[in-house]
Amino acid sequence: MPSQWTRFAMMSYSDALGHVSLDYSGMLLQQEAFKALEEKAASALAELDAIEKGTVANPDEGRMVGHYWLRDPALSPDPAIAEEIAGTYEAIRQFSSDVHNGKVKSSTGKPFQSFVLIGIGGSALGPQLVNDALGGRGDNMMAHFMDNTDPDGFDRTFDSLEGNLDSTLFIVVSKSGGTAETKNGMLEARRRLEAEGLSFQRQAVAITQKGSSLDRLAEVDGWLRRFPMWDWVGGRTSVLSAVGLLPASLQGIDTDALLEGARYCDSLGRASDWHENPSLVLAMSWLLATNGQAKRALVVLPYKDRLALFAKYLQQLVMESLGKEKDKGGAKVNQGLTLFGNKGSTDQHSYVQQLVEGPDHYLVTFIEVLRDRIGPSMSVDGKNTSGDFLAAFLLGTRQALMQKARPTVTITVPEVNAFHLGLLISLFERAVGLYAAMTGVNAYNQPGVEAGKLSAGQALLCLDMAVEFLHNRKGERFAAVEIAEQIGRKDDAFTIFVMLRHAAYNDDKPVKMAGNSAKDAVFWIS
Amino acid sequence: MPSQWTRFAMMSYSDALGHVSLDYSGMLLQQEAFKALEEKAASALAELDAIEKGTVANPDEGRMVGHYWLRDPALSPDPAIAEEIAGTYEAIRQFSSDVHNGKVKSSTGKPFQSFVLIGIGGSALGPQLVNDALGGRGDNMMAHFMDNTDPDGFDRTFDSLEGNLDSTLFIVVSKSGGTAETKNGMLEARRRLEAEGLSFQRQAVAITQKGSSLDRLAEVDGWLRRFPMWDWVGGRTSVLSAVGLLPASLQGIDTDALLEGARYCDSLGRASDWHENPSLVLAMSWLLATNGQAKRALVVLPYKDRLALFAKYLQQLVMESLGKEKDKGGAKVNQGLTLFGNKGSTDQHSYVQQLVEGPDHYLVTFIEVLRDRIGPSMSVDGKNTSGDFLAAFLLGTRQALMQKARPTVTITVPEVNAFHLGLLISLFERAVGLYAAMTGVNAYNQPGVEAGKLSAGQALLCLDMAVEFLHNRKGERFAAVEIAEQIGRKDDAFTIFVMLRHAAYNDDKPVKMAGNSAKDAVFWIS
Predict the structure, then answer these.
(1) Do A348 and B153 touch (CB under 8 A)?
(2) Is A361's Cβ below 8 Å from some Cβ in B?
(3) DSSP-assigned beta bridge partners for residue B58
(4) Using CB atoms, which residue from B294, B400, B457 is nearest to A455?
(5) What's residue A67's pLDDT?
(6) DSSP alpha helices (H): ranges in B66-138?
(7) H/E/C letters for each residue in A281-302?
(8) Could you say which of A43, A71, A206, A521 would form a disulfide bridge with A515 (CB–CB 3.0 to 4.6 Å)?
(9) Residues of A identified as active-site
(10) pLDDT tens-digit profile of A445-467?
(11) Does A78-253 match A4-56+261-439 at the fold level?
(12) Which residues in chain B have Cβ-Cβ distances shorter than 8 Å to A136?
């Protein structure tokens, strides 16, 4: 094995401008391993190139995949699309400016001081990441999120807005317009505002596809504004559409720099020589680590508090894109790539013990940020700063893993600002696209989530039927299995038990329960 | 296969009082699979029993393992220990009361309104969980955390305290007293207070082992108070020691109920019949899912916003305890159990696609909470509430996984309050202890984290030497590999490069850098 330095000099990448470095010498492989993937890599690049040119890359849904156009509208295959993107960005800029200068006011005429984004999954993770990475006390507006259908979670958000509902803007985000969690959040928020005599529609904007149920509602009710989503942008890559840019712009974050960083990294990611293409090297590293068969999980460890949500963001991007039962040819492959992580050095005091000593199931991806803070640092030991320690801890964990022959990759950026966050988003978006191409899966659909939604609908239907049955037999007590029999849903006794138990613990339905277990529980309405 | 209902009736557990249920019918196994583990389970129970009685369960460090005594001091093998626990709890109660009623004031005589807990890993994750699960707007004090050595992260906490530093209490937590991240945070906080003319020691308390460097510092400098940690409580099980109870008590959280919930679940966890022992069933489920060889990762999905941090908390508890290179006999086993997760139904819109369709590498652990909120809920669809939807989404995902023969376990608790959080903590602590006993690893040490700390120390030393070298050769430019050669640390060229690059991006050292890559970068001091 050549020395660590020789490997590092050979197997690391830096762009000419110093915006991003990628050290893959920690993979502990020879160059030859990467070279063996060159053919695969070239065809993956060609596939991404075709996507950028407007091929229908998501044939299951008959859709183009255009998130790369968002930061470079000129790339899009249709001038109408380029115009729509530019128009939307201009509308965001204008609306933000109107909100900031008080031209757009709340229903009581107050300037908006904060917003609540109501959305889930791809409609929340991006804005949450941007807020956590780039937001702060000096922002134009404070950001809040409702990203679930948890009643207590709603209440906590409303609690934190107490006394300020009349200066709060509500941004309702759902591409399809029909996401139940988002719809529930919107209804609860509307109820809350109306209870205080406020007009929800005069404090709400929608981000959704044209013609969706949410779009129509917002139009009919006369919401403040509607911003488009497009069928050629998937939720998990929507952060640089209105979904991420509207909240960022309202906060006062430099959205142009976000776009510019992504556009810059896109340009790096088109290099045909893999040595010069950081997204491609990343994707190739993943493939070598996993054998294309999910052999290892990606553990993402940014050593920076501001990137604490990055792993959570990437979890959706990577796992929803790559976790597929079938490949594009229809063969059963059960592909996927597990991703988790948080922030260093905090995580050194958590699960690094297992990464070092446990099963060899991981590829640790460090993210190093060079700039420590704005302004000078004190010395904490007579010589070094807190930031020197943070840098040393990253290296320490990297070395400890290396000593146990555990692979690592390290991404280095100078700082966490809008430009470099945009860059990191592009870096991973492209790596995911390339990895999908190399493993032959469609990265742009999510067929596996439908079954759960259908089952949830059935569970609500079972609940309705069971409650109606108990209503009609007031005072009589029934086991779940009896109710199931009586309402003709014999196979749903378990579902009926779970849904009725939940109802019995809350006062919104008159359902009562005695007994705790499947064996003895009975339900009734008195 | 028997019907879903029959399996559920056979393979689910509920305690008599309705405090916790465990549905392991979703494992999709026969009773026989569990029965086959009965012998292993019995001996694991005996091992846990011996631990509770005071055996030296962590022989590597020559320590007893006593976190179970924290909620039931009478269990402890030594009356002196019982007295120490009781005395500490009384001291916490007294101090909190003194803070709340203004008897203990800040250095400027103000009542304390908020606190910053400075700690990392086991000294932060528990308090963060308790705060997120049980804290809220009505708390007696607002909680902040500094759990890293990230300078910008420190600044963000200080920013959020702007104008209120003189009513902020600092709780410095380090068992050993020597944790670098915590020490750095303490030094930065002290500097910040002193810059505003405040006295840190009159606003600080320490939680640490008697005689540690932190303990001595706090004593000499006359901090407000010192609370003990004990060598028989590991960091990852310290949430019910002063580490978790002091901040909780200051917030006004019912710490007695926390302890009571854990004590109650401990009592369930001693049942010798595995059918009646939820921690044991959980541990057996893990063993069946993993084959004792990390075959599957645990994906923890609480369907409740207040439990969003639970997976992060468990990640340390499970992975640091079970991720071990060697078993207790010294054989190389590379044991471990990967754990990640977040909250549902949010995660349905993230990685559930992969859990359903990807590789069969997971055991999903749902946590269901029956109580939706305080007060009534509106109907969102004419019949059902947001909470009904949340319950249905959990079931929907469970059914979708079952259709693909993916195993699940579901834990149900009535609500997220102090009692049930204590219960959940005990449930998993005991499951981890039992799983470790069944797989033969020491769950109470963490030998794998030392190497990283040593390497980090070496990295700082390399930095010091390199900076000194450049100082002595002012104006001359050197590549990292040359510096390494010159200072006699030829093998550390890579480390020197990384540490100098970090220094060059910050103004705290006079190091300059030209070039970006390993091949062309040079460093100098002018």
Answers:
(1) no
(2) yes
(3) B63
(4) B400
(5) 96
(6) 79-100, 125-134
(7) HHHHHHHHHHCCCCCCEEEEEE
(8) A521
(9) 320, 349, 453
(10) 999 999 999 999 999 999 999 99
(11) yes
(12) 156, 159
CB within 8 Å of chain B, chain A residues 326-355? 334-340, 342-346, 348-355
As a CATH number, domain B78-253 is: 3.40.50.10490
Cβ-Cβ contacts under 8 Å, A324 against chain B? 353, 357-358
Distance CA A280, CA B42 (A): 52
A314 interfacial to chain B (CB closer than 8 Å): no
Is B4-56+261-439 a CATH 3.40.50.300 domain? no
Pull the structure tokens for residue A236. 């998990």
Residues B272 and B153 sit within 8 Å (Cβ to Cβ): no
Task: List A368's β-bridge partners, or say none.
Answer: A412
Q: Which of A325, A389, A460 sits opposite B388 (nearest CB)?
A: A460
Summarised one tens digit per residue, pLDDT across range B453-499 is 999 999 999 999 999 999 999 999 999 999 999 999 999 999 999 99
Residues 6+ apart with CB under 8 A from A116: A144, A145, A146, A157, A161, A168, A169, A170, A171, A189
* ipTM of the complex in this document: 0.98
Q: Is the pLDDT of residue B416 over 90?
A: yes
For B448-525, CATH number out of 1.10.10, 1.10.3810, 1.10.3470, 3.30.700 equals 1.10.10
As a whole number, mean pLDDT of residues B281-304 equals: 96
**Any CB–CB contact under 8 A between A413 and chain B?**
no
Whole-prediction pTM value? 0.98
Q: Where are the alpha helices (DSSP H) in A379-449?
A: 386-403, 418-439
Task: Tell me which residue of B259, B182, B176 sits closest to B426, measured CA to CA.
Answer: B259
Question: Rounded distance, CA A249 to CA A450, Å?
Answer: 33
**Strand-pair partners of A507:** none
Q: Using CB atoms, pick whichever of B156, B316, B351 lies closest to residue A323.
A: B351
Q: What local confidence, expressed as pLDDT, does residue B59 receive?
A: 85
From the CB of residue A468, how many other CB atoms can be counted at a distance below 10 Å?
A: 13
Phi, psi dihedrals of residue A19, rounded to the nearest 5°: -90, -25
Q: With an 8 Å Cβ cutoff, are B349 and A156 in contact?
A: no
Tell me which chain B residues have a C-beta less than 8 angstroms from the C-beta of A191.
378
Alpha helices in B196-277 (DSSP H): 213-221, 242-251, 255-268
Which residues of B are marked as active site?
A: 320, 349, 453
B430: nearest Cα among B292, B308, B286: B286
* Alpha helix positions (H), B101-178: 125-134, 151-160
Domain ranges (residues) in chain A: 4-56+261-439, 78-253, 448-525
- Name A74's Cβ contacts closer than 8 Å, sequence gap at least 6: A82
